[in-house]
Amino acid sequence: MGKLLYEGKAKQVLEGDNENEYIIHYKDDATAGNGVKHDQFEGKGVLNNTISCIIFDMLEEAGIKTHMIEKLNDRDIRVRKVEIFPLEVIIRNITTGSFCKRLGAPEGIVLDEPIFEMSYKNDEYGDPLINDDHAVALKLATREELAYIKTTTLKINELLKAFFLKFNLKLVDFKVEFGKTADGEILLADEISPDSCRLWDVDTNQKYDKDVFRQDIGDLIETYKEVLARMQGK
């Protein structure tokens, strides 16, 4: 394994076999509230890696360009080297979480159309919400890059909604990140897992995502295992 380049809350980024690749290693850590709440759950990294790889494969087949090259083992994937845009890109299909807290909206309202949001990835300032003008002023991305990111994220939303619905899960909202290669190609990066998206059972509205950890309402590992089992038809 190559030299550790960066360590985040749930993953490590290591040097790859060549200068155009990284290795991403999934840890067992779970955090909430910008790291204020923290714990470790044995096997969480394996579950997230497996779920995310299945989803990235599905998106690639549907024409979404991602950074993933291949799954190496239970915890590691080989990815194309990208410079991550310091933006968290969020889609909301049903009201919950910070949206309700900020705006006083009741939880569980199915939105007529998805809401697209961006936050500035900066723990020091609490990942504040920003708009296109802010992002351009701070030179986080160009207007052309932001337009591509928004269009692609909305496509991803439609693909993910249909994908999860097959497993009797509603896609409530999700967060993704994008990166840019040395030659300027924009790719979906990071991960898509129950850590980064909210999933509710279609019939019961039971939560199958990291909210069980955030809100202390269930067993995180058993919850993630159930998501994977549904995806694998078990």
Provide keyphrases for this structure.
5-stranded antiparallel β-sheet; 14 strands; globular
Would you write up a description of this structure?
With 234 residues, the chain is an alpha+beta fold. Helices cover 30% and strands 32% of the residues. The protein is built from 6 helices and 14 strands. Strands 8, 9, 10, 11, 12, 13 and 14 form a 7-stranded antiparallel β-sheet that branches. It has a 5-stranded antiparallel β-sheet with strand order 1-2-3-7-6. A hairpin with a 4-residue loop joins strand 4 and strand 5. The radius of gyration is 17 Å and the shape is globular. It starts with a strand and ends with a helix. The model has no long low-confidence stretch (mean pLDDT 96).
Question: What's the helix and strand layout?
Answer:
Elements (H helix, E strand, L loop, with lengths): L3 E4 L3 E5 L5 E6 L2 E4 L4 E4 L3 H18 L6 E4 L4 E5 L2 E2 L2 E8 L2 H7 L6 E11 L8 E2 L1 H6 L5 H23 L3 E12 L5 E4 L7 E5 L9 H4 L5 H12 L3
Antiparallel strand pairs: 1-2, 2-3, 3-7, 4-5, 6-7, 8-12, 9-10, 9-12, 10-11, 12-13, 12-14
Helix pairs in contact: 1-6
